Amino acid sequence: MKRFLIAALAATTLSSAITAVTAQAADDIRPRMIRFGYGLNEDSNQGRAAKLLAEEIAKASDGKLKVRTFGSASLGSDDQMQNALMGGAQEMMVGSTATLVGVAEEMAVWDTPFLFESEKQADHVLDGPVGQKVMDALEEKGLVGLAYWENGFRNLTNNVRPVEKLEDFDGIKLRVMPNPVFIDTFKLMGANAVPLPFSELFTALETKAVDGQENPYNTILSSKFYEVQKYLSVTNHVYSPWIVTASKRWWDGLSKTEQDIIMKAAQTARDFEREDTRAEAREALAKIKEQGMEVNKVSPEEIQRMREQAKPAIQTVIDTVGEPLFNEVQAAVEKAPK
Ligand code: TK8
């Protein structure tokens, strides 16, 4: 009798333990709707990676975490979405680090003209400790940085003339990302730098409110800038990262399991996105020419002159992010494989 009781007791304890574990696991992933916004079209490197991220999250959560993606800035410009995340009105987004400088000035370090020489070097620095440190600066501002994606090396388009030498920037009304480093860099070049959100860019080019803009090949293609721009000048003047962020208010209410699923998906999508972006960029110039743009490659001598001319903008970066962080990034760049 006694033995039977003990066995029964053990069985009950065991089964209630099992129930508890299952209940906890189920409880660990709650049905949620995640609004994920971005600025480019669905048919872009950004859109393709957003789609993959949504699929990865659905798969890993058995469909409980549902990501709805909103492209073409339909939830607002980068700035507007960042504010929505900080206020808890939107859950996630991907956008330019350059548009985050007003939130966390550390982000300006990535805007240093000619900072990186290759994508590989950028990956090492961004995914390394100093990249993480810059990302972590977002937390106290109400955002959680999850992963850097690639926007890419930026090149110049305009309707006035091919930019072959420094002097050719003269008087060109150039849209730049709303950020002090970009404004200074292009003012130094002699352009008339006009800060505008990306979501207003196509119309501004179409209506000739501005003469030109600068973005990676991928964006020139996916946003069809070739329809409203004549000249493309290859400068590779800066490498732009994108960053996937989440609302901290919302993130802090997620279980560890949910956070892990989302973090992992952001990183899987990052690896896919970088490969996809690079493959697309390799084919892009030919396609851009097919669309009728005139392409010129700026000579190394002239690039050197532009580098020199942009040097005071580096001081703007240092003033914004502080010398220690600037130096830390420089050291990481020097150590990184090219
Ligand atoms: C898209 C922007 C874009 C960026 C810009 O929302 O603003 O020119 O390069 O990718 O973040």
UniProtKB/TrEMBL annotation:
The keyword Nuclease does not apply. It comes from the Bacteria. GO terms for molecular function: carbohydrate binding. Residues 1-25 form the signal peptide. Keywords: Signal. The keyword Signal applies. One of its GO terms (cellular component) is outer membrane-bounded periplasmic space. One of its GO terms (biological process) is transmembrane transport. It holds the Pfam family DctP. NCBIfam families: dctP (TIGR00787), TRAP_S1 (NF037995). PANTHER family: DICARBOXYLATE-BINDING PERIPLASMIC PROTEIN (PTHR33376:SF2), PTHR33376. This is TRAP transporter substrate-binding protein. It comes from Stutzerimonas zhaodongensis. The lineage of its organism: Bacteria, Pseudomonadati, Pseudomonadota, Gammaproteobacteria, Pseudomonadales.
